[in-house]
Design brief:
mainly alpha
Amino acid sequence: MITRVLAGDTHPVATDVGLLILRLAVAAVFIAHGWGDVFEAGVSNNIQNYGDAGIPLPALAAPFAAYVQLLGGLVIVFGALTRPLSAGFVVVMTGALLFVHRGESLVMGQDGSGSGYAFIMCASSILLLFAGPGRFSLDRLFADRWSHSGSQAQNRWPRRT
């Protein structure tokens, strides 16, 4: 048993629980940051901040980042559209690493600088992009229903030989 756990050969339910916990944690952080970008700082202020940081196309990038984080975070809570939204999160966090946190330490400094948050959020989003949301998600529910209804439809029609 211990060797299976150490080797990463765990029960599939454990993996799905882990993906659920990761998905909810990622969602919570993105919702909080997106909320701040949309309702506290305001998207128009972020457009100026993005321009000052040298982020290309700030009039597109700032609203994209704010709403992908806020709305995407809300949707990912339910495990819906997980892979496309995770790709959006990767884009946002890669931009943060390249334009905002370039050259900063992974450890947060006294002034709040540090790339650790963007780094771990990018890595977590990459995991969700590649692994998907797990079985406790709307994505899985819809995929199972579509594959089940598709197999029934194939069985209803005789094959031509």
